[in-house]
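#structure-requests
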Amino acid sequence: MRTGRHLAAAAAAALALALAGCADEGRLDHGQVFAFGTGRLAVTAGQTFSLYSKLAVVPGAKDWTVIDPQPDPAVLKVVGPDYLKGGGNAGDGGSVYLVFKAVGKGSTDFTVENCLNCDAMLKPTYQVRNTYHLVVK
């Protein structure tokens, strides 16, 4: 017999699968778009926003993620990455939007990094780590 706890777990798993299915398809709302490297961000509570970057054609270079320490969950929710395929030109790896939701007023710092699974020879050239300071009004 299914309990409320089992149903809640099943619903959470279904939501995670649905969000995972959106990756690489360009279906997430990007909200206000900031360029990667914009160190200070200011948004309003409830606002969706994203960090945007063009991608090189390098295995693992598109694997952008928020790394520890995680941002204050009362201020910022990580929605996830949204990848758009390249146009087929040489060297065009497409683009990525790292999507976030400003949850509540306050400030927090967060760091994103790519190339966590890159070959050791590629990391010195393609690995990037950016730290951001977010103020939510």
